[in-house]
User: Which sequence fits this backbone?
């Protein structure tokens, strides 16, 4: 064989090789109503794209090869209230633009379940009337984004989670809308996760971390749940720029840090919650530059929180600014403390720090006195310091005299002080009048 013939045959082989690969990975299939999606999946090559046309398909899918399943608007898979609707046991799978409904009601049932899968993408799906929405166990490197997820209309205890992640890592969860589930995003033994730009409403816990490590929780909107962020036995988290509002149940918290460590909470807003943020055995926590406003309790401290520092935050319009039941938490970083809107003092040297320490006022724990919130009489007694003795654990040694954030960063209608002021003045006036009339009658 001459060299010329050899190179010609080699060139033909290379052209055939690349041409055949391109053909395999460009293969696509179309599924119409009346056809079986599973049958088409079984026939498809690795890397194929399966387009599902508008219609209702009542079946359960097992995906064991790398494919893309893409639905036309109105493409619905109905699980007939049995088992999981789509089970993925392959890497490199994409599921996009499908509507999935009516999974089974067992603990492990889900609209989409990934088991030992790697590098899959779940995006732009509508999921409803299911036990769990998207459930991922083991595997890694997944993206879950732009999905709408809700559970079945049953009691909270019988619902599943919106996005359930267990024993996995390197996950991105972003731009999802989750409502009426048990936990919006649940993580257990997960590492290297980013949860950002999601909206979670009407659930038990919006975001629930258990035994998880290294994560970012950023720019989420968490509203009208029992609790916004429940962080338990987890560490190395960055929690930034979230808006956590309207968690008003008496058992509810905007954020609860329990037996966790090495967490930064920065530039968040906790508004209109029963308790804005709570610490319990939370070590090496830094909470700074947050707004905590219009909660029943702004900050709650339980047990010792070693090496944790709470500073440079605005606490505005909370009925009880801080409630320390036991233990301690540092309210300053030895240079700056926080802004407390019920603090009354002067800044004589112009450094922005008041000349006397801030002392938390616990009188509002008594429901009777809460009627007189921010009344002139209470303010006078606070100034005189006769309500409660100075306690080291409730003292901020370097309180700011002006808020650190502009008022435009909060919705002005959120601030209740104007209404409370009117009510308080009215009640104070009535009380003074009743006392005065009582004395006149007794004479």
Assistant:
């Amino acid at each position: 064989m001459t060299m010329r013939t050899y190179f010609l045959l080699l060139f033909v082989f290379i052209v055939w090789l690349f041409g055949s690969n391109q053909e395999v990975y460009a293969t696509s299939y179309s599924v119409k109503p009346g056809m079986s999606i599973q049958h088409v999946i079984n026939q498809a090559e690795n890397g194929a794209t399966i387009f599902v046309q508008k219609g209702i398909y009542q079946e359960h899918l097992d995906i064991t090869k790398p494919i893309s399943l893409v639905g036309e608007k109105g493409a619905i898979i109905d699980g007939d209230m049995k088992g999981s609707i789509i089970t993925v046991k392959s890497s490199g799978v994409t599921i996009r633009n499908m509507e999935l409904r009516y999974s089974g009601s067992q603990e492990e049932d889900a609209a989409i379940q990934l088991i030992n899968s790697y590098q899959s993408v779940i995006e732009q799906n509508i999921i409803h009337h299911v036990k769990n929405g998207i459930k991922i166990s083991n595997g890694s490197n997944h993206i879950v984004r732009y999905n709408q997820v809700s559970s079945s209309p049953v009691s909270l205890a019988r619902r599943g989670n919106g996005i359930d992640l267990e024993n996995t890592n390197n996950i991105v969860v972003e731009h999802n809308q989750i409502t009426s589930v048990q936990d919006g995003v649940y993580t257990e033994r997960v590492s290297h996760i980013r949860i950002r730009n999601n909206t979670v409403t009407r659930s038990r816990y919006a975001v629930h971390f258990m035994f998880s490590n290294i994560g970012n929780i950023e720019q989420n909107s968490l509203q009208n749940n029992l609790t916004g962020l429940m962080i338990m036995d987890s560490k190395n988290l960055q929690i930034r720029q979230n808006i956590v509002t309207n968690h008003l149940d008496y058992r509810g918290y905007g954020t609860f840090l329990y037996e966790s460590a090495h967490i930064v909470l920065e530039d968040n807003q906790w508004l209109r919650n029963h308790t804005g943020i709570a610490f319990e055995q939370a070590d090496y926590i830094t909470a700074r530059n947050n707004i905590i406003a219009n909660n029943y309790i702004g900050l709650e401290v339980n047990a010792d929180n070693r090496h944790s520092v709470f500073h440079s935050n605005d606490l505005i319009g909370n009925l009880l600014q801080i409630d320390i039941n036991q233990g301690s938490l540092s309210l300053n970083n030895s240079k700056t403390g926080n802004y407390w809107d019920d603090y009354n003092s002067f800044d004589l040297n112009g450094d922005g720090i008041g000349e006397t320490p801030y002392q938390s006022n616990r009188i509002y724990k008594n429901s009777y006195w809460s009627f007189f919130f921010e009344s002139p009489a209470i303010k006078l007694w606070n100034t005189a310091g006769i309500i409660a003795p100075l306690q080291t654990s409730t003292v901020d040694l370097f309180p700011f005299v002006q808020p650190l954030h502009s008022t435009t960063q909060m919705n002005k209608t959120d601030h209740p002080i104007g209404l409370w002021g009117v009510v308080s003045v009215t009640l104070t006036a009535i009380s003074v009048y009743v006392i005065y009339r009582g004395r006149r009658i007794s004479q």
Notes: Confidence is low (pLDDT under 50) at residues 14-26, 366-371, 385-392, 415-425.
